[in-house]
Amino acid sequence: MVNTDFQKLPPSVLVVDDEPDFGAYVGLVAQYLGYSVELLSNPKDFQSNYQKHRPDVIVLDVVMPELTGLQLVEWLVDQKNEARVVLVTGYNPHFAEAAKVFAHAKGRFPVEVLTKPMGIQELSAAISGDRALEKASLA
Questions:
Q1: Which pLDDT tens digit goes with each residue over 39-79?
Q2: Where are the alpha helices (DSSP H) in 57-112?
Q3: Which residues, other chains included, contact 19 with Cβ-Cβ below 8 Å and sequence gap of 6+?
Q4: In a 3-state reduction of DSSP, which class is residue 25?
Q5: Among candidates 8, 11, 13, 10, which has minimal Cα distance to 24?
Q6: What distance in Å separates the CA atoms of residue 29 and residue 43, rounded to the nearest whole number?
Q7: Are 47 and 79 in contact (CB under 8 A)?
Q8: Which neighbouring-strand residues pair with 86?
Q9: Which of 77, 67, 82, 54 is nearest to 16 (CA)?
């Protein structure tokens, strides 16, 4: 007899940020939302982890040493990524907006842009893709 009672795996988030404290913050919020989380502080580890895990959501810092979030977005376009991408930056958000426009122009995947620091509701809404969460917190 074949067991057809499979457990559905939780959705997953891959977080890439060279600031471990911020990565841990994103990870805690994502876990609270029911996501499994993989944290990376080195952007060079992203590509192999992406191939291995194929996450549902990717949270990328824009400014990191060696590889930027923008370079990783370009790589994701080449990989035909389907995961939602959340770009976070503590610097000029126009760089992240450029990556958002690029990804949308290629018609590949949704990109959200958040500026550090951000609140829990804003981050939760970006990870879950549910902007109603953010609007409800503002009411």
A1: 999 999 999 899 898 899 999 998 898 898 888 988 998 89
A2: 69-78, 93-105
A3: 41, 61
A4: helix
A5: 13
A6: 21
A7: no
A8: 59, 112
A9: 67
